[in-house]
Specification:
PRF/CT, mainly alpha, 5 helices, single chain, elongated, 196 residues
Length: 196
């Protein structure tokens, strides 16, 4: 299937060579690939520790978006219609806000499941990986002279209801995994345009 987005022009003032940019894109793609396993693992661990109905195979509520972290899913036509700039801007925005939400869910889990230190560690690691991916994405954008998109800040999670806290955490873990999968696909397209 033909990709509809066009190659981004290199700025004549850019100090990085196309080869250096290609290496950075490949490194970012490798990070997204490595995060696919850990993001799926976080979601599985989270569900495992929340009790019923979260562990029920039929439990599949529609995922809710959050400020700064929209739903990453698009139809194939809409996804292919995005430009490289739009893809990078959307990913950079999502991964700049995901750490705020992951940290909030970790704090909630420290209250709800205080003994599950491995789960808490997974949230910390996921948050740090998001920051690393965000930095890589912004570096690629800078190299390609792409301006950051409009900023949408994450909003603190607030709830006193334990079920709603668990449900919100479920949404966040799902969004994290789904954005990692989306990012991997988006950067895979760039690796074809900027081969090492």
């Amino acid at each position: 299937m033909e990709v509809l987005s066009v190659d981004l022009p290199m700025s004549s003032g850019c100090s990085r060579t196309q080869q250096e940019i290609a290496v950075e894109i490949e490194r970012t793609h490798n990070l997204a690939l490595s995060m696919q396993f850990s993001s799926g693992q976080l979601l599985s661990s989270y569900v495992h520790h929340q009790g019923m109905p979260f562990g029920d195979p039929d439990f599949n509520p529609p995922i809710q978006p959050f400020p700064g972290v929209p739903l990453p899913t698009l139809s194939t036509t809409d996804w292919l219609g995005l430009t490289d700039q739009e893809r990078l801007q959307q990913n950079a925005s999502a991964f700049s806000n995901l750490p705020v939400y992951l940290d909030s869910v970790k704090c909630q889990q420290m209250d709800l499941n205080p003994l599950e230190t491995e789960l808490h560690r997974q949230f910390e690691s996921s948050s740090l990986r998001c920051l690393g991916l965000e930095n890589n994405l912004k570096s690629i954008m800078s190299s390609l002279d792409i301006a950051p998109g409009p900023a949408v800040s994450a909003q603190p999670l607030e709830s006193d209801n334990s079920f709603l806290m668990k449900l919100t955490g479920y949404y966040i873990c799902h969004l994290f995994r789904d954005w990692v999968n989306r990012c991997e696909k988006d950067i895979a397209l760039l690796t074809k345009k900027y081969p090492v």
